[in-house]
């Protein structure tokens, strides 16, 4: 992969992390656990590459 592609994937991962924690802080206990878990797992995979 090129550096530009990696930078784009890292940006997507960071945006996913920010959006998931924003959803958690806004929705509180009514946040759908499975959806949040899937997003957090996907962004962790992107950010650890």
Report on this structure.
By secondary structure, this protein is mostly helical. It has one domain. The protein has two helices and no strands. Helix 1 packs antiparallel against helix 2.
Layout of helices and strands, plus pairs?
Elements: H1 3-27, H2 33-48
Helix pairs in contact: 1-2
Biggest sheet: strands, sense, closure? none
Helicity, as a percent range: over 70%
Kindly report how far apart the N and C termini lie.
Answer: 11 Å
Total strand segments: 0
**Number of helices, where a helix is a run of at least 4 consecutive DSSP H or I residues:** 2
Order of helices and strands: HH
| Number of individual domains | 1
Low-confidence segments, ≥5 residues, pLDDT <50? none
Mean pLDDT metric: 89
Global geometry: elongated
Which radius of gyration do the C-alpha atoms yield? 12 Å
Computed structural class: mainly alpha
Q: Approximately what portion of the residues adopt beta-strand conformation?
A: under 5%
